[in-house]
Amino acid sequence: MARSLALQSRAWLACGAAALALAAMPTPALAQDIAPLEEPIDVALRTGPLLPGEVLRSSALTFPSILEAFEREAAARSDQLSADGAFDLMLKGEYYDRLTGFYSGGFGKVEARQPLRPYGAEVFGSYRVSDGDFPTYENYNFTNQLGEVKVGALFSLLRNRDIDARRFAIEDTRLAASQAQLDVMLVQLNVQHEALRAYWRWVAAGEEIRVFEELLEIAEARQVGLAREVNEGARPRIALTENEQNLLIRRSLLEEAKRNFLVAANSLGFYLRGSDGQMIVPTREMLPELARMEAVAPVEQLVATPVSEVIQSRPELQTFKLALERANNRVELRRNDLQPKLDASVELSRDFGALGPGGPGFDSTDAVVGLTFTVPLQRREARGRLQRAEAELRETELRQRRIADQITTEVSNIIDNLSAALKIADLADAEVKQASAMVQAERTRFRLGAGEFFLVNAREEAAANAQVKAIRAKLAGRLAEASYNAATMNLTALGLE
């Protein structure tokens, strides 16, 4: 029993020494550490005007789709760490002893193995110490009294020399993490684009309410004057009835505008959120004054950067570059499977201390080399996997070409729409001025008795329609500008810098 306890102590002391050596070795680091997400802050919401920068900041920090994209990136980084684990240092301990029987031999062993990336190699070192007698068929367990130290290495000479499943997984997860990072940018661009569009629709809907409120106020004020004139006999009652009809029409237009504003406010509230992520529906009191807001930049200023340069920086195409690299790596992995497997090994061992029961045959330095060769004769499985990988590579190349052409077409259409929207907005402003002048002239003629009440109402409604048309023309310009900023990755304009 004392011999057994001593053997166990020596073996586990060796395990402890190996563990200390393991702890002293540097651990592999991630290609890119995962930084914690910035804590969302409260949106500066007031009873005063709500500006587009506040909406963009709110959506950038609190919108669920963006936070989901960050979590997907964190998951991809975790996969990268997991793939690196295939090259972790492994420590193994073993103890063997006979409790009864004719032979009394036992041993303790500790071994450390470290996979390496070049040549698919693996190096190892072990320490083993034995005591007692072993039968002839177990005489390889004998060591000298101070034990045996062995070091060695394994190498792949054909298959798995340049690439194998472990090294492929490390590179593939690195590329996947980069794709996830690009996906975050793509989600941010889309969310900020839609948030900005929702904001300008909300502003435009508020402006339309103002137009129809003014139109209704004119009719209500006129109703008071017509009622007095009808009571005095200066006008026929039909004039009062006609204005009542106009009142109903204008109230209907105002209610429809209010409904559109509520829908636009709810849509904007989907992106406007507090620090707790809860949606905030803006009110009319938060509408800004358009006269004080910066106008849409001229098209010539926006298109100063060539479209080709803009397109190359798009995250979709950057993602395809990474996808092609991943597909090429998979093809190389499948080509590797077609090669025969030829592995080489080399070992060096040495016993220390006084001779053990095994005799002088164990008191030497032994160097051993070996070769192992295996090959499947038909290799149909490997050929099938290779053909599939090559087909997926060609599919990715064709999809990349289609997406690049699609982005080029979309950017060109955005520029054309923006140019047309700015011209239409200028024409709409001129139309508003003309319509307002016609209203004033018709009212003057009506007060002088030369005009007709029907024409006054028609001129007022035409002027209101011109104002609504101008509002919607300017909205089209704002939407086109937002689309252009998203397509050209103008991070400052989208609140991402």
UniProtKB/TrEMBL annotation:
Residues 1-31 form the signal peptide. Keywords: Coiled coil, Signal. It holds the Pfam family OEP. Residues 379-406 form a coiled coil. InterPro entries: MdtP/NodT-like (IPR010131), OMP_efflux (IPR003423). Belongs to the outer membrane factor (OMF) (TC 1.B.17) family. PANTHER family: BLR4935 PROTEIN (PTHR30203:SF24), OUTER MEMBRANE CATION EFFLUX PROTEIN (PTHR30203). This is TolC family protein. It comes from Erythrobacter fulvus. The lineage of its organism: Bacteria, Pseudomonadati, Pseudomonadota, Alphaproteobacteria, Sphingomonadales.
